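Consider a protein example.
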Amino acid sequence: MEGGEAAPPAAEEKGGEEEDDFGYRLFPDRNKKPQSFLARSFFTFHNRCQLMLRMTLETSPYAQLLLEAMKQSGCTVFSDRHFSCEDCDGCVSGGFDSATSQIVLCQNNIRQQSHMNRVVTHELIHAFDHCRAHVDWFKNVKHLACSEIRAANLSGDCTLMNEIARFKFGLKGHHQTCVRDRAIRSILAVRKVSKETAEKAVDEVFDACFNDLEPFGRIPHSKRDAKRAYRDFQNRDRYNANL
């Protein structure tokens, strides 16, 4: 998740103790009755979100590669079914709801096209992982950690320019540090676990998941890298089709 992982079904309270809600508290619109099209049309946040989403899906090489990879894996993504623009808690920008296979875009927190591009890419990586693997989002914190590592690593979250904008600077190993830190933050945002538990889960799977570059085949540090990765992905598929 961008700023927090997304939402499996909310847990019930048992024995008077508060159970983990798996992050649904960050996405209050998930539990509301859907508004009519006419009602939504009067909310500029919603309209802006829809327009920016369309632009991302049509122009972002990150998103285009992930959409094509998911289609080839048998998980075709439809913009009207698998994306939902909603109001969210102030600390998150998006999430992947594995219960509905739907990406939530936080229309009140996403205000720039570049931010939308990054959020959609981040959440599509979660969706891709959900498609290709038996990810236990609910109970296995290592599975969640692995997908968060991959999303931070491959979505552009930790590019040099984004880190400079956050006033974070570093030299050797800074990209890895950023990926680790953002993965831990995302886990803590949506799981009622200690920081030590989140750090342990990330550290135990970090090397394997950081080096899992599918479907990009490389870490796309820029839009140019993403375009090259998309071209290589298409050429790889053409080569495989001729075998």
In short: The mean pLDDT is 84.
